[in-house]
Amino acid sequence: MFAKFFKNIPYEYRLAGTFFVIGLVWLITTDNLLLIAMDDKQLLVNVLIYKEWFSIIAGTIVIFLLTKYLIKKVQNANTKAEKHELLQTEFIKNISHELRTPMNAIIGFSELTMSLENTNDETKEYLKIIEKSSKELLTVVTDLVDTSLLSSGAMNVNPADFEIQPFIKTVYSYFTPIMGQNVRLELFNNGSQNGVTIFSDEEKLRRIFHNLVNNAIKYTYKGKIVIGYQLKEDQIIFFVEDTGVGIKKELHQNLFKKFKQIEIERLNRSGGSGLGLSICKEMIELLDGKIWLESQSGKGSTFYFSIPKKYIRE
Prior knowledge:
Distance between the termini: 45 Å
Catalytic activity: ATP + protein L-histidine = ADP + protein N-phospho-L-histidine
Strand order of the largest sheet: 2-4-5-7-6
InterPro entries: HATPase_C_sf (IPR036890), HATPase_dom (IPR003594), His_kinase_dom (IPR005467), HisK_dim/P_dom (IPR003661), HisK_dim/P_sf (IPR036097), Sensor_HK_Regulatory (IPR050736), Sig_transdc_His_kin-like_C (IPR004358)
Number of helices: 8
CATH class of the largest domain: Mainly Alpha
Enzyme class: transferase
Protein name: histidine kinase
CATH architecture of the largest domain: Orthogonal Bundle
Keywords: Kinase, Membrane, Phosphoprotein, Transferase, Transmembrane, Transmembrane helix, Two-component regulatory system
Strand content: 5-15%
């Protein structure tokens, strides 16, 4: 632990500390040497006085540098704490909005549906809005529950054998009816790679897929979204590719961190809890995999997540 702490201290402060130790040893040992080496008492007194003054000045400099370092560490810690608090505040505001919006829609359209003056067509339209709002509300609540379980380490992995191709098709079938008029959902053709069975947590993989496809739908206004998988080297790589607005390169680094997605949501003026991608990252890591993306602003995005090929059932 001490070695790690020492390594993290900047070079100039380590150097100052080294000189401090050398100076301390020098102070302890040189008095006796001077008494033995010098016969002139007046000269000896002068030398000792200058030595003491030098020691005081050197010690003061070392203490100043170390104090400066510690103050800087405290300031950095305070800055990080303030930034984290700011992100949490932004998150709470965002979540409050995300919860209130579908709740208001559910309440409002439920009241309209109960009105006797509604036609059958109006009732169906209201029920569709209620269903959509209920799903949005469920997504927000699920994100909060998943984040809580992941943070506490209480989320369990339940692996089982399942075939990849039918699994991908269920994701495709779920999203096909809700695609916009100008966006089509496509299933990647794996050719000879069909019929692969893996041992993993199907529900968590589905959750990851759903989060990524939802994101793609949110930011893709025309073109297509492609979902699929490929077997490459020592990995099974799943992907969600879109022709949407893309993500600026400077945002990639923090994209999978908690609350950071809020910044992207705000820049694109789109709703969201800011937790979806961080949940994806933590879930895929539970499955011994990893997640990454390729994206450029205005040129679409491709999100990849993988699990080791060792989980394939022969």
